[in-house]
């Protein structure tokens, strides 16, 4: 950065002084002199420059200091005073070409080299260590000196002794990744980025090139997920290109915030670690709920199906299914989704982009627990009356009161489901399912509430819930069966998931986008659709309502009584004779009035039409007569015609007189 100020001496403006600051090795290379300890300028030779670079600049950079060199040069007007060896004389201001950067950045006098320390936050090394443990590679892209960048990376634990890493400057980085034509080669970039940890003296384009190269790389089995942090305007392209862009909320510019996906309100790297931890916790919560829900669904559906097929009756009534769905959907989702994230989530490697939503471990848990519960339920269903010495509920009449037999089946199923909810807290094969249970108060409250509600439903539900009170012995058996699911869960955990077929995974692979048109049709050819009129959502909705209305009318027609069907074709309601006579009289009057109005309108139209027709015919006859006279050679002049007629009359009079004499 450069600043120009007027140079005043003894109250007189004698020229200009230019101050410059910047990277020490660059600015010092533009200096011709350097102020010594005596305060006087001394010539800066190449040997002296190398000595300062190696003994001062590199030493400061290795200590993690950002070095800045401050320099100046002076322009003196001609004739104002004698020049010193470091000053430049000019006759007129027009002689100084301020736009010539190459000339302006020469012949400086170095003042000092400053070392600025930007201390690393105490929590950053620990956060980066957690990222490494979680399988996240941290790379630093900075504009600092390579020595400074390496020292800061060592302090942050980005670089550690014994690691195979690369620390490059932007110039060397571009030389390695570009081909003979100056274009970025993906093959060359794939050889560098896996080991690259520090990129110093980097330009904004270098950061974007690195992000794009990692995203487009095929060097790894799965595509890398890239997250980028930035605070400046120049970081916008890289933040936009990355899968996840983090902008600084305090020091970040508006451009960086708009280009990012997440804004760190505290500008702290540890917030990124917490975001990763919460993201994995959400993923695990979804997996826990799916595992528990699918287990309950499989058992409930098969129990109802087998009961309906074998004995034409299901031990799980409609109200039982509603209560099970309430446990499964609402309460279980609240209980399993309120687990707080722990540091153990960062000890696992990140999930791949094509990882199955339902893993082999989850499939193993679902099938094994469902099989165990089905065996117990069917044993109680078919042999429970014999085992417990109670009246059988099989083949009961249609409106028979709730049986103790079916209530026992329902209670055993709910108890196993409630205890299996504890097993569902761990979906990665962990042994200790009680770890962290006491800290999750929401889970404990929901679990205890569900247990107490089940007791109330069984003992006091009666006909409302299709239940029969159970004895103490039967309750103990149900509790033992429920607790046995925890023991069965430990047995299932001993089965190695890696030995299971890979085809057991569900939801694997990338989601391919389908062709979606405005009307909601999928996977149709655009060319064929372009020739047809697309129906809007409103028209489809109206069509659906019309079909529903037709269905309702048909249902009402089938549900009519005989008397209603007889009157189905009537067009008017029944009336008394007097009312009907009044209605007919008013109707005749109305018809007569309408007939008179119509007749008057027709007559008026005909009279107007006849007058117009007579006038039109007169004009036609006149025109035809004129055309006929012209064709015969006669004049159509009226005056000439009158004169000729007058002479003819005079001639006729004379002839008469002659005859009389």
From TrEMBL:
Its EC number is 7.2.2.10. Residues 314-492 form the Cation-transporting P-type ATPase C-terminal domain. It is an enzyme of class 7 (translocase). Residues 652-661 have a biased composition (Acidic residues). GO terms for cellular component: plasma membrane. One of its GO terms (molecular function) is ATP hydrolysis activity. Pfam families: Cation_ATPase, Cation_ATPase_C, Hydrolase_3. Keywords: ATP-binding, Calcium, Calcium transport, Ion transport, Magnesium, Membrane, Metal-binding, Nucleotide-binding, Transmembrane, Transmembrane helix, Transport. InterPro entries: ATPase_P-typ_cation-transptr_C, ATPase_P-typ_cyto_dom_N, ATPase_P-typ_TM_dom_sf, HAD-like_sf, HAD_sf, P-type_ATPase_IIB, P_typ_ATPase. GO terms for biological process: regulation of cytosolic calcium ion concentration. It is found in: Membrane. It catalyses: Ca(2+)(in) + ATP + H2O = Ca(2+)(out) + ADP + phosphate + H(+). Residues 601-661 are annotated as: Disordered. The chain crosses the membrane at residues 294-312, 357-383, 403-422, 442-466, 472-495. It comes from the Eukaryota. Catalyzes the hydrolysis of ATP coupled with the transport of calcium. Belongs to the cation transport ATPase (P-type) (TC 3.A.3) family. NCBIfam families: ATPase-IIB_Ca, ATPase_P-type. PANTHER family: CATION TRANSPORTING ATPASE (PTHR24093), PLASMA MEMBRANE CALCIUM-TRANSPORTING ATPASE MCA-1 (PTHR24093:SF253). This is Calcium-transporting ATPase. It comes from Caenorhabditis remanei. The gene is Cre-mca-1.
């Amino acid at each position: 950065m450069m600043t120009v100020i007027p140079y005043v001496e003894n109250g007189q403006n004698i020229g200009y002084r230019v101050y410059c600051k910047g990277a020490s090795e660059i600015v010092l290379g533009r200096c011709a002199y350097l102020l010594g300890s005596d305060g006087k300028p001394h010539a800066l030779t190449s040997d002296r420059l190398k000595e300062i670079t190696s003994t001062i600049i590199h030493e400061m950079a290795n200590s993690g200091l950002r070095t800045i060199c401050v320099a100046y040069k002076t322009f003196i007007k001609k004739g104002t005073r004698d020049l010193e060896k470091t000053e430049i004389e000019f006759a007129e201001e027009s002689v100084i070409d301020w736009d010539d950067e190459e000339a302006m950045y020469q012949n400086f006098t170095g003042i000092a080299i400053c070392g600025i320390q930007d201390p690393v936050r105490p929590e950053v090394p620990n956060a980066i260590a957690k990222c490494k443990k979680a399988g996240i590679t941290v790379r630093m892209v900075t504009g600092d000196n390579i020595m400074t960048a390496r020292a800061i990376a060592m302090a942050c634990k980005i670089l550690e002794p014994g690691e195979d890493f690369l620390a490059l400057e932007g110039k060397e980085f571009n030389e390695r990744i570009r081909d003979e034509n100056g274009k970025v080669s993906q093959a060359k970039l794939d050889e560098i980025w896996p080991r690259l940890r520090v990129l110093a003296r980097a330009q904004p384009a270098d950061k974007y090139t690195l992000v794009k190269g990692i995203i487009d790389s095929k060097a790894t089995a799965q595509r890398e997920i890239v997250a980028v942090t930035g605070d400046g305007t120049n970081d916008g392209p890289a933040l936009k290109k990355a899968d996840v862009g983090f902008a600084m909320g305090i020091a970040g510019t508006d451009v960086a915030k708009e280009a990012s996906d997440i804004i760190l309100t505290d500008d702290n790297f540890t917030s990124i670690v917490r975001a990763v931890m919460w993201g994995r916790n959400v993923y695990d919560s979804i997996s826990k709920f799916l595992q528990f829900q699918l287990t309950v669904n499989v058992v409930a559906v098969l129990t109802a199906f087998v009961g309906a097929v074998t004995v034409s009756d299901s031990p799980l009534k409609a109200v039982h299914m509603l209560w099970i769905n309430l446990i499964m959907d609402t309460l279980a989702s609240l209980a399993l989704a309120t687990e707080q994230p722990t540091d153990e989530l960062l000890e696992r490697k990140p999930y791949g982009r094509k990882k199955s939503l339902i893993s082999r471990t989850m499939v193993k848990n679902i099938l094994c627990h469902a099989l165990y519960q089905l065996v117990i339920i069917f044993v109680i269903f078919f042999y429970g009356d014999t085992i417990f010495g109670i009246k059988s509920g099989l083949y009961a009449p249609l409106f028979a009161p709730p049986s103790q037999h079916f209530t026992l089946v329902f209670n055993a199923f709910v108890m196993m489901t409630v205890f299996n909810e504890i097993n569902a807290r761990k979906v990665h094969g962990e042994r200790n399912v009680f770890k962290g249970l006491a800290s999750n108060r929401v889970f404990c409250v929901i679990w205890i509430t569900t247990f107490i509600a089940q007791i109330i439903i069984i003992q006091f539900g009666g006909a409302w819930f299709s239940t029969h009170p159970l004895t103490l012995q039967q309750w103990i058996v149900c509790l033992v069966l429920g607790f046995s699911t925890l023991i069965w869960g430990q047995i299932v955990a001993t089965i190695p998931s890696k030995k299971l077929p890979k085809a057991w995974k569900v939801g694997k692979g990338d989601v391919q986008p389908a062709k979606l048109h405005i009307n909601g049709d999928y996977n149709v050819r655009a060319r064929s659709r372009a020739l047809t009129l697309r129906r809007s959502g409103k028209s489809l909705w109206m069509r659906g309502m019309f079909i529903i209305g037709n269905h309702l009318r048909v249902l009402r027609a089938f549900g009519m009584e005989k008397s209603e069907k007889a009157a189905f074709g009537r067009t008017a309601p029944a009336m008394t004779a007097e009312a009907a006579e009044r209605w007919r009289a008013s109707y005749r009057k109305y018809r007569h009035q309408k007939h008179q109005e119509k007749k008057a309108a027709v007559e008026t139209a005909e009279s107007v039409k006849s007058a117009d027709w007579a006038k039109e015919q007169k004009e036609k006859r006149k025109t035809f007569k004129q055309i006929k006279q012209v064709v015969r050679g006669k004049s159509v002049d009226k005056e000439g015609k009158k004169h000729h007629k007058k002479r003819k009359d005079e001639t006729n009079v004379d002839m008469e007189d002659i005859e009389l004499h």
